[in-house]
Backbone:
């Protein structure tokens, strides 16, 4: 896990925030999957996407602070973008399957 290399004083700061945001991505997808309509599901997917962008923002910040190398960020960014693209595709699918869009 990337946050293990952060300074100890960040344990309850950025480390905690990044970990919570990462968990939030999958948690919102799980919660959204229990919703009945595609529109409701899409809303939770949108929230998951927001959490993913929060993770990216925090990683950029940790890079700026010197806690994370640019090399590591450059390796993570394409993975984050791939997940973001998949979330956007899922959201479109959920919206299109909604009976209100037919």
Residues:
């Amino acid at each position: 896990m990337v946050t293990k290399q952060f300074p100890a004083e960040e344990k309850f700061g950025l480390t905690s925030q990044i970990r919570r945001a990462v968990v939030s991505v999958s948690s919102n997808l799980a919660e959204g999957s229990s919703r009945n309509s595609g529109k409701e599901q899409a809303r939770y997917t949108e929230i998951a996407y927001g959490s993913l962008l929060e993770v990216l923002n925090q990683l950029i910040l940790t890079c700026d602070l010197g806690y994370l190398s640019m090399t590591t960020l450059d390796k993570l960014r394409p993975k984050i973008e791939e997940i973001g693209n998949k979330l956007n595709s899922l959201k479109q699918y959920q919206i299109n399957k909604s009976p209100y869009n037919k």
DSSP finds three helices and no strands in the chain. The domain at 13-101 is CATH 1.20.1440.60 (de novo design (two linked rop proteins)).
